[in-house]
TrEMBL record:
InterPro entries: DUF4240. Residues 10-119 form the DUF4240 domain. Residues 122-132 have a biased composition (Basic and acidic residues). This is DUF4240 domain-containing protein. Residues 122-144 are annotated as: Disordered. The lineage of its organism: unclassified sequences, metagenomes, ecological metagenomes.
Length: 160
């Protein structure tokens, strides 16, 4: 299941339709239990990325970020592949170059959240519970908190 996420992201060229098409084909050829495994792994990646520092990155990059917007941002992050995802978990400011890539139109990928359910034909029950709150240290919208804590992202995206 993990490698399927990377296969769908092996050419993250900004073309989300092409990524969805590749991933749908991969999942369609699998037995239902492997589709569930994929969905469980995807959900775990979403939950692991439910962090204040990544929400701050999304907020700065997108010029604001709601709860739903942060879900779509985390889907985009996963779609960028294992290496980008792991670097972002280690340092949210590593996203400065990926989000600024000219092939990336938007850092949100809502459709990726529903691929397994569409292939399976029913909503997936992965048995995982979404964390009640993001992990890490919360940030303040007002003042210089974001600029101070995320200087590279702020310098690149705050005035765009």
């Amino acid at each position: 299941a993990e490698s399927r996420l990377d296969v769908s992201a092996e050419n993250p060229d900004g073309n989300m339709d092409r990524q969805i098409e590749r991933l749908t084909k991969l999942l369609t050829d699998l037995p239902p239990e492997e589709v569930r495994d994929f969905d469980r792994h995807f959900a775990q990646c979403m939950y692991d990325a439910y962090r204040w520092d990544l929400w701050a990155a999304a907020y700065i990059i997108e010029g604001g970020c709601s709860d739903d917007g942060f879900m779509d941002f985390r889907s985009w992050l996963i779609s960028m592949g294992h290496d980008v995802y792991e670097r972002a978990l280690a340092d949210s400011e590593s996203l400065v170059d990926h989000a600024a890539d000219p092939t990336v139109e938007v850092c949100a990928f809502e459709e990726l959240q529903y691929v397994a359910s569409k292939v399976h034909g029913d909503p997936m029950d992965h048995g995982l519970e979404h964390p009640a709150e993001p992990s890490g240290e919360p940030w303040e919208e007002e003042g210089d908190d974001l600029e101070r804590r995320f200087p590279r992202l702020w310098a690149k995206f705050a005035d765009e």
